[in-house]
Amino acid sequence: MRIIDKEELNQYEGYSHVWYACYGSNINYDRFMKYINGDEKYSTSEGCEDKSEPLEERQYIFEHPIYFAGKSQIWGGGVAYLDYERPGRSYGKLYKVTMKQFEGILKQEQRAQLYNTILLVDTIDNLPVFSFTAKHRIDELLSEPSKEYLDVINKGIDDLYGNVEEIKKW
Known about the structure:
Number of domains: 1
Number of helices: 5
CATH class: Alpha Beta
Number of strands: 8
Largest sheet: 6 strands, mixed
CATH architecture: Roll
Distance between the termini: 20 Å
Oligomer: single chain
Strand content: 25-35%
Order of helices and strands: EHEHEEEEHEEHH
CATH superfamily: Gamma-glutamyl cyclotransferase-like
CATH topology: Hypothetical upf0131 protein ytfp
Radius of gyration: 15 Å
Helix content: 25-40%
């Protein structure tokens, strides 16, 4: 896993599809699709230009922990970030989306300017795996997530991994 800038991301324009590795509320398919389709509350109203569903979804285990920080205007508590500088474990999800969809999701997530770091996570099936997070762990902004936010994450975990209480303890 390594940080890339937008210039390097542009080098992947030739790929029709990529993997988007997500954590937090985007594990939940219904929540994720709000970025694709658009939604007044949870994303920009227009969403992505390409409204097609992901071609595939898979489980993905990050070898790094997540943490909650900031205060979301939508959720009313901290939101999830991947701590790519520390070893650990967190449960995520892969969506096979078009490169344009990934760029659209990234653009929507970067509106608050906290998800300001693009990560090249891996290569799976000869396709790049991208994610994003904050540039550095924001210890001074650590905060508890809201129950509503955790409920969305937990539903995504249940749908993807099954009702596994140990996973929810992360």
